[in-house]
Amino acid sequence: EAGVVQSPRYKIIEKKQPVAFWCNPISGHNTLYWYRQNLGQGPELLIRYENEEAVDDSQLPKDRFSAERLKGVDSTLKIQPAELGDSAVYLCASSLDPAGYQETQYFGPGTRLLVL
Amino acid sequence: GNSVTQMEGPVTLSEEAFLTINCTYTATGYPSLFWYVQYPGEGLQLLLKATKADDKGSNKGFEATYRKETTSFHLEKGSVQVSDSAVYFCALPLTQGGSEKLVFGKGTKLTVNP
After folding, report:
1. Are B88 and B35 in contact (CB under 8 A)?
2. pLDDT of B13-39, one tens digit each?
3. Taking a C-beta distance cutoff of 8 angstroms, is the pair A106, B42 a contact?
4. Considering only alpha carbons, which residue of chain A is nearest residue B89?
């Protein structure tokens, strides 16, 4: 069974440029998460989807970040414009059960973003 | 609100040494507790979990016991291998503002030398 797939793995951009990250969750997993992981820190949730609905986006900086999950499968996270402080690893995760956080989350390898 | 505090790293051990990574938590009620591991260049993966007080989670030789008296969930392994070199994260669910999310500790980097 394929795991969570993310692309690109690395991205270097200049500040004020746009950037997008793509995630393909494990087949059949209805719940999808985007996290940001700063250097030396644990992941922090940005947004959670159940199918195509964003059920928790309270931590997403909506002035510059946007996300979508068309057809309840793949998801894209976008930053426009990027700032220096956005440099981090962006992780996508998925889980089978939308009922809460008792279910195991499966993480992708992440996209490492560097904003210059 | 719920939170976790992890032992700061990095931790460097020789192969076959005993490992303890401390994790204490603050929580309302008795939520499930998790240890995730992140190997170099990879995403996080669940290592073990415990769903209620006094439960012991175990996997790959690692163990952690959910202790409500001391609000702890320390990770232990009797004999570490070079392949255990990774970053280890303690985590628990947090309900805040009507939504629930998984809260991670800062992570503890373990390096095991041959």
Report:
1. yes
2. 999 999 999 999 988 777 889 999 999
3. no
4. A42
Q: What is the 3-state secondary structure (H, E, C) of chain A?
A: CCCCEEECCEEEECCCCCEEEEEECCCCCCEEEEEEECCCCCCEEEEEEECCEEEECCCCCCCCEEEECHHHCCEEEEECCCCHHHCEEEEEEEECCCCCCCCCCEECCCEEEEEC
Instruction: List Cβ neighbours of A82 (8 Å cut-off, separation of 6 or more).
Output: A13, A15, A16, A17, A18, A19, A64, A113, A115
Cβ neighbours of B32 in A, within 8 Å: 101-102
**Per the CB < 8 Å rule, is B46 touching A105?**
yes
Is the Cβ pair A4, B43 closer than 8 Å? Answer: yes
Neighbours of A82 (CB within 10 A): 23
A8-18 tens-digit pLDDT: 999 999 999 99
